[in-house]
Amino acid sequence: xxxxxxxxxxxxxxxxxxxxxxxxxxxxxxxxxxxxxxxxxxxxxxxxxxxxxxxxxxxxxxxxxxxxxxxxxxxxxxxxxxxxxxxxxxxxxxxxxxxxxxxxxxxxxxxxxxxxxxxxxxxxxxxxxxxxxxxxxxxxxxxxxxxxxxxxxxxxxxxxxxxxxxxxxxxxxxxxxxxxxxxxxxxxxxxxxxxxxxxxxxxxxxxxxxxxxxxxxxxxxxxxxxxxxxxxxxxxxxxxxxxxxxxxxxxxxxxxxxxxxxxxxxxxxxxxxxxxxxxxxxxxxxxxxxxxxxxxxxxxxxxxxxxxxxxxxxxxxxxxxxxxxxxxxxxxxxxxxx
Length: 338
Description:
39% of the residues lie in helices and 12% in strands. The protein is of the alpha+beta class.
């Protein structure tokens, strides 16, 4: 009997210990879930606040573009230095400080499409020049790869399914995995370029949205607002000459080709001249707004992008396209704040 009582007491002790352990595990799990739920709620609140700040910044940038269309008062330029650079030429993709300041943790950039290459206006010879540069060929060098790419480019946009001898039409694209139809009409998006046979390989690594546009009357660009990505594609330009162009326009304005020849030698200028119109101004812009990293380990790789058509100072810009996850070029990706 004494042995039985001792055994019962031992069993009760074991059960009590197991109960304490289980309660401890449950309390720990509940505490962990509570902390996790609190962090989720906090993150959601931060996301909502960031989204609201981004929307506010987009509206402020729209107002900035509207203000730019207003006529300037007679005393707008008090000194000759004030006339060194047209105000709208600050819309070149660099970070902006708006007249109606955005939140401190929001970065706003505006790209003027006058500084991009118009895909819809490109003629075959102009596309040939871009392809030759991408393939590392000289301007006068002929190559079967380029001719095949040009044929595919033409076939993609013509109105029939009859392929040029070295081109690509419906039968080729339907034989791919997955299959798709060629456009057989005017190109409808910048990303569509990669669907044309061979173009995905040639333009791999190029930020197409920053380099190209679908808006405007011709394929010429204004160096005052040209994007870095567009300049990289233009024939004759290398990283050194691009850097010189970007540095010079920070304080000056390209008013004509005479200003450009200060920076470029004659052979480069000969290749570049057909692409330039340094007085070109359009009414299509892309606004990019993104959060500035505020904690260690954070970085910004994408922005909320909105392409708009500006119609005057009294009417809100017409939104043509929205991309909530537009990748930022590598040079604009923010480093974490220490």
